[in-house]
Structures are given as C-alpha cells and as structure tokens.
Amino acid sequence: MINWTSLRLQVPMLRRCLSTLTKSEARKKRNELFDSEAKRQRAAVGRIEKIEVKYSGPSDEITLVMNKHLSTPFDCAKHISEGVTKVAALAEVNGTPWDMHRPFNSECEIKFVTMASPESQVVNKAFWRSCSLMMGAVAETAFKDSISIHLHSFPIPNVRSGSFLHDISLGFEDWKPTVAELQSLSALYIKLSQKNLPIERLVVGESIALEMFQDNPYKSEQIPNIARHSEDSVTLYRIGDHIDVSKGPMIGNTGIIGRCTVASVHKLSTDEYGTLYRFQGVALPAGILLNHFAYGILEERARKLNNSVWVPSKIVEDSEDQIAAVAN
C-alpha cells in the first residue's frame, strides 16, 4: 500500500533535485527574467498617451500631466517636492491603496499616505508586509551559497500579533540560532533598510513566474493556484536583487523602515512540507523614537512564537527561551 503522507514529504525534496542552479545563479536568472519582462511591457505600451492626475495635498491641489501605463505615484511625488518622495509610503489612487512604483492605468485623483497618516490600518499592513518581504531577502543572503534555502511564504499581515514573519526551509534539520547569529541577521536587516532601495512591482504571467521560481518547490506549487485566482497573473515585488510573490501593496522604499530586530527563529514541523523555520521580527517606521525599555517590550513579544496565523500541526520546538538580539 502507498504511504501518501510519506510521499508528500518526499515531493519537495524530489523537486529540489531537479534544479542544478546555485542560490546566486537562481537569483541572477530571476532578475534577468524580471528585467526582460519589465522592458517588454514598457515597449508594449506603444504610443504614449497623456493623462491628468489630480493631486490633493494638505495645503494645495495640483493637476499633473503624466504618461498612461508608464508614470507612477513616485514620479508624481518628484514633481511635488523632495520631502514627499521621502515620506510617502503608499498612494491612494481614486481611493484605492496603490504602490508608489505602480503605473497609472487611467486619469485619476491621487493622495499620498505616510506612516503618520490617519489611514493607519492600510499603511500599517503594507509596512508589515514589506518587513516580511525584507526578512526573506535577509535570510536568502545570510547563509552561504552552498546551503540550500527555499522561501516558503509569509502570511497576511496581522499588526496586533506583535511580529512580522517569514516561513523558510533551510538545508539542515536542527538549527538553534545563537544570540550572535540573531544579531548578525538584525545587522543585515538594518543595512538593507538603510540602502533606501525602491520596492518594485511587476505583474507577470503564470509561465514566467514558474520559470523564475523553478528552483523553489514551494513557489512552483503555489504559483498555479495564485494565477487561477488572479486572472492567470502573478504579482512580484523586488528589493535590490531579491524577488518574491505577494499581492501587495508594499511601501515605497526600504528607508521607511527604521529601528528593527530579527527577534527569533522557531523550528516548526509540518505534515506536508517537513521542517520549516519561522523567522520573526519587529520594526518601527523611520522617525518613530522609542526608548530602550519600551522597545525591549516589543522585542520580547516578537520573540514568542507567532501563532496568530497558520501554524503547522506540530511544533517541534517552541524556542520561547531564546534570547533576542540586542536592537541597534
């Protein structure tokens, strides 16, 4: 008799064996495909059509003439002031949350949303989601190229949970990060945020997305289901050379993230995917000041297993006794 549970556990391993690319080679290929598709989409626009974008600010209203399918809220912000480009986390286009680097598809009215805007719930979720995206970028670069690592997923942001997270498969079964290792991960995270990199958005077809992530067994399984529910398309986001799948929206750039800590890594066991590691962190928007004691309380909360979202059937190690990295 076939042991279906055992077979499911073997499928990810079998798929991994199909890819001969190293991590750096796979990352390079994804970026080449991303750039090629972005260039193709720009060329497909053809004759440029002008549209009016009406900006409503705190003290003035401006009508800008922009390029349909090419110009973005960030391009509008550059026409308004340098200050707006630095603090705008999201845009609202005709009342809909909109990525700063997502092109307009029609004439519209636009507002910019900062981390201090009254629309805090929308922007907070985008902030938390972007933090999870960056966690994946940090994890992919933190380990040597010889170590197998596959990003699984990050969930819908739940700000009240106390931590953002990313579930990741590593090339070893029993890793307990030391205080120094958590500090190193936090340092990499801070370094990435300080680069002020734009968070780019690109919508691609299912076949391109599958080609990009053919080295990742989890993404290869998830992408067809995502495409079925999104008109055969998949939304991608890129930070530097890191690319992942998410419906968004995301904040405009990494510099909007200020103080941050990779607080803990929990080892989890799943019936379907085997061992996963849940990377958890906490962050504050740039410009938000908090004393060491108050921030320490946030770190302590982020250290505990975040079970407000999907949790596997069995927790191998709770890891609540882990010591969080010292925040920088």
Q: Architecture of the largest domain in CATH?
A: 2-Layer Sandwich
Kindly name the structural category: alpha+beta
Distance between the termini: 56 Å
- Using the coordinates shown, work out and report the CATH topology of the largest domain: Threonyl-tRNA Synthetase, Chain A, domain 2
Write the layout of secondary structure elements.
Blueprint: H1 4-18, H2 23-44, E1 50-56, E2 61-67, H3 73-80, H4 82-87, E3 90-93, E4 96-98, E5 108-113, H5 120-142, E6 149-153, E7 164-170, H6 179-193, E8 199-205, H7 206-212, H8 217-228, E9 233-239, E10 242-245, E11 257-270, E12 274-285, H9 292-303
Parallel strand pairs: 1-5
Antiparallel strand pairs: 1-2, 3-4, 3-5, 6-7, 7-12, 8-9, 9-10, 11-12
Short description:
The model is unreliable at 1-17 and 313-328 (pLDDT under 50). The chain folds into two domains: 20-44 and 124-328, 2-Layer Sandwich (Threonyl-tRNA Synthetase, Chain A, domain 2); 45-120, Ubiquitin-like (UB roll). The protein contains nine helices and twelve strands.
Explain this structure.
By secondary structure, this protein is α+β, with helices and mostly antiparallel strands. The chain has 9 helices and 12 strands. A hairpin with a 2-residue loop joins strand 9 (233-239) and strand 10 (242-245). Helix 5 (120-142) packs across helix 6. The longest helix has 23 residues, at 120-142. The chain starts with a helix and ends in a 25-residue tail after the last helix. One of its GO terms (cellular component) is ribonucleoprotein complex. Keywords: Mitochondrion, Ribonucleoprotein, Ribosomal protein. GO terms for molecular function: nucleotide binding; RNA binding. Belongs to the mitochondrion-specific ribosomal protein mL39 family.
